[in-house]
Amino acid sequence: MTDHAIFIPDEHMRRKRDAYWTDLVGGVTGRYKTAQVQRLLEGRTLPEGSSIVDVGAGTSDLSKMVAEYGDIDSIVCLDYDDDIVQRSRAAETDSRVQWRTGDASDLAAYGSDVGAVGFFDILHEVYSFVGRSPQTGAIDHAVGRAAVEDILRAAATALAPGGVILITDDVLPEEGDTPVRVRTKTPEIAEVLHRIAREYPSRPLEIAWEDDGRTFTIPARTFITLLTQYNKPKQGDEARWAVEQMEVHEYMSASEYQAFFGDLGLTVAVDVGTPPEAGAEWAEDFEVLDGLPGFPNKRVAVLAAK
Ligand SMILES: C[S@@+](CC[C@H](N)C(=O)[O-])C[C@H]1O[C@@H](n2cnc3c(N)ncnc32)[C@H](O)[C@@H]1O
What's the rounded Cα separation, in Å, for the pair 16 and 41? Predict the structure, then answer.
């Protein structure tokens, strides 16, 4: 039977640590998001002598890449998982990097002269943890979003003039709740989707099946959630699925990032796309029949400059 237990961050942290730490930055998504951030930073120089704060760092690889775009004195890698911090600190070879155990909400402590604040695939975790109902495990969109926005406002305050906020994550489609009609290419994939519908408390997928058992209609905003999650149960990756059951990765569309940072007076650039490997797997398993011209995009990178 499904684990619909009450989810708490400690449990999430433990499951994540056990499940999948090692393939995070080296894999398809890691390479894709690194290239997205490099595209956004191209031609830009970070304020001289400033610092980088990498929130939810996990690894210092991305912030070291960002540091190549300026004369950076220090890199603070912040993670609330002390186990990750201890291990990473022991293995760190770059003297500019300081590993600290702390929460994303501690950003106010960093003053107002930070050259870059990085949020690389962490904000969906803030959204999921803070937004989650302890009773049902469902994530309240408004609550999760408000938590993300509070952290982004604190990051904007911490920036030096010319400093940047950098974000990578999965992205909500602009089409919102537009119904999308989709066919699974095999009955096995339809079975995987039934399993997800049963075992995913975080966000109801609102799938309406047709009589053939293979065609369904789903809102665009949850179609992307389904596409993000289905390959773990499909591959029988139970450890990873145990983590993903507790997360929703899509909380903001590209235009919502633009509007949010625009209102804060920052200049915004976004890069939206899908790793080719993910697109190829989707096309093997699904056919989009109606409602969208093709598959929604998976990834967003955002640069917001002061
Ligand atoms: C998906 S991993 C991403 C790691 C790395 N930034 C990357 O892009 O590869 C998310 C990381 O954020 C950390 N994290 C989650 N919520 C956090 C919070 N509220 N404050 C600090 N770190 C957090 C987790 O422990 C984990 O290391």
Answer: 30
Write the CA distances from 217 to 210, 214, 221, integer angstroms: 8, 10, 12
Going along the chain from its start, the domains and CATH numbers come out as: 9-171+239-274+297-305 (3.40.50.150)
Give SS3 for 120.
strand
Kindly report the protein residue whose alpha carbon is nearest to atom 27 of ligand 1.
58
Torsion of CA 198, 181, 250, 193, to 10 degrees: 20
Burial of 211 (0-12, 13-18, 19+ CB in 10 A): exposed
DSSP state, residue 273: E
Alpha carbon nearest to ligand 1 atom 9, residue: 25
- pLDDT at residue 4 in the model: 38
79 CB under 6 A from ligand 1? yes
Among 80, 89, 123, 249, say which to mutate for ligand 1: greatest number of ligand atoms within 8 Å of CB. Answer: 80
Nearest CA to ligand 1 atom 8: 120
CA distance 298 to 272: 8
Tell me how far the alpha carbon of residue 127 lies from the centroid of ligand 1, in angstroms.
12
Burial of residue 45 (number of CB atoms within 10 Å: 0-12, 13-18, 19+): exposed
Any atom of ligand 1 within 6 Å of the Cβ of 65: no
Average pLDDT per block of 10 residues along the chain, 306 residues long: 48 63 68 97 94 94 96 94 92 95 91 95 95 92 97 97 97 98 98 96 95 98 97 91 92 98 98 97 98 97 98
Measured torsion, CA atoms of residues 179, 185, 188, 193, in degrees rounded to the nearest 10: -10
The values of phi and psi at residue 116, to 5°, are -155, 135
Instruction: Indicate if ligand 1 lies below 6 Å from the C-beta of 81.
Output: yes
The helix-helix angle for 141-158 and 123-131 (nearest 10°) equals 140
**How high is the pLDDT of residue 240?**
86
